[in-house]
From TrEMBL:
Protein name, entry field: ATP phosphoribosyltransferase
Enzyme class: transferase
Originating gene: hisG
Pathway terms, separated by semicolons: Amino-acid biosynthesis; L-histidine biosynthesis; L-histidine from 5-phospho-alpha-D-ribose 1-diphosphate: step 1/9
Pfam families on file: HisG, HisG_C
Histidine biosynthesis HisG C-terminal domain: residues covered: 207-278
Chemical reaction(s) catalysed: 1-(5-phospho-beta-D-ribosyl)-ATP + diphosphate = 5-phospho-alpha-D-ribose 1-diphosphate + ATP
Entry's EC annotation: 2.4.2.17
Main location: cytoplasm
Cell location: Cytoplasm
Protein task: Catalyzes the condensation of ATP and 5-phosphoribose 1-diphosphate to form N'-(5'-phosphoribosyl)-ATP (PR-ATP). Has a crucial role in the pathway because the rate of histidine biosynthesis seems to be controlled primarily by regulation of HisG enzymatic activity.
A GO MF term: ATP phosphoribosyltransferase activity
ATP phosphoribosyltransferase catalytic domain: residues covered: 49-203
Length: 282
């Protein structure tokens, strides 16, 4: 069986299980379950701490894992990202009290508190900055107030908690993270079970990003309409019973669907419909 690691809790857990369910895999029914066997798909799912997943995958004990890009890089494990999953996005940045520093170039001799010691240490080393890094679990905002560090490095979403602590974001983002599929470094691409798993997830990503659009238009306006809805290869065009009219079907990006519908209407298209795509293979 294919052995796959899934986050057991945290912000990645629910969306990861939801995506796997959309891909046709059995998932756990309650949070206490640590292992779920899906015999129909010949897969075993192991629900693990997100921070540990890269280590398990790198060891070769598990074939595939879903975790955060930040957690993968911070672990230093011999594993690699093979697919971004478009959820769990976050930005990792430095912050400090106003006037302390403008960016990493000013960090020489300072101490930086973070829960992601591996990422920060590598970022400083890559830039040739001589600064100390202290590892803290949980909220790191109070590290400056308590004198443990002059700088913190943490995940920043809105920045509200930092401002409430009297801190400001400085410098460029250290890392932009999201949920990713990982495998062991050096693993081959010829495992048919892994290939099928990846195709299913890619199908979910496409299905979430596109809608199917159907509409009718006059034959003389078809080229204009097709320019608006080129589809992936080309749209499907069928003649209607009423002479001079055709029916068109094409996949269009979901985020652009409303604009495309407006543009189609302006050139005379009617009966314009969109429907969700639940699964696909390209």
């Amino acid at each position: 069986m294919l052995r796959i690691a899934v986050p057991n809790k945290g912000s990645l857990s629910g969306p990861a299980s939801a995506m796997l369910h959309e891909a046709g895999y059995r998932q756990r029914k309650e949070s206490k379950e640590l292992v779920v066997i899906d015999p129909d798909n010949e897969v075993e799912f192991f629900y693990l701490r997100p921070k540990d997943i890269a280590i398990y995958v790198a060891s070769g004990k598990l074939d595939i894992g879903i975790t955060g890009r930040d957690l993968l890089l911070d672990s230093g494990a011999s594993a690699e990202e093979i697919l971004a999953l478009n959820f769990g996005r976050s930005t990792f940045r430095y912050a400090t009290r106003p006037g302390t520093a403008n960016g990493p170039e000013d960090f020489g001799g300072m101490t930086i508190a973070t829960s992601y010691e591996g990422i920060v240490a590598k970022h400083l080393a890559d830039q040739g900055i001589d600064a100390s890094v202290v590892h803290l679990d949980g909220a790191v905002e109070t590290a400056i107030q308590l004198g443990v560090a002059q700088i913190i490095a943490d995940v920043v979403e809105t920045g509200t908690s930092l401002r409430n602590a009297g801190l400001e974001v400085i410098g460029e983002p250290i890392l932009t993270s999201e949920a990713v599929v990982i495998r062991r470094h050096g693993a081959t691409d010829d495992n048919p079970q892994v290939q099928q798993f990846m195709r299913r997830l890619q199908g979910v990503l496409v299905a979430r990003s596109y809608v199917m659009m159907d509409y009718d238009c006059r034959a003389e306006h078809l080229e204009q309409a097709v320019a608006l809805t080129p589809g992936l290869e080309s749209p499907t065009v069928s003649p209607l019973h009423n002479e001079g009219w055709v029916a068109v079907r094409a996949m269009v990006p979901a985020k652009e669907a409303q604009r495309i519908m407006d543009d189609l209407y302006e050139i005379g298209a009617r009966a314009i419909l969109t429907t969700a795509i639940h699964a696909c293979r390209l």
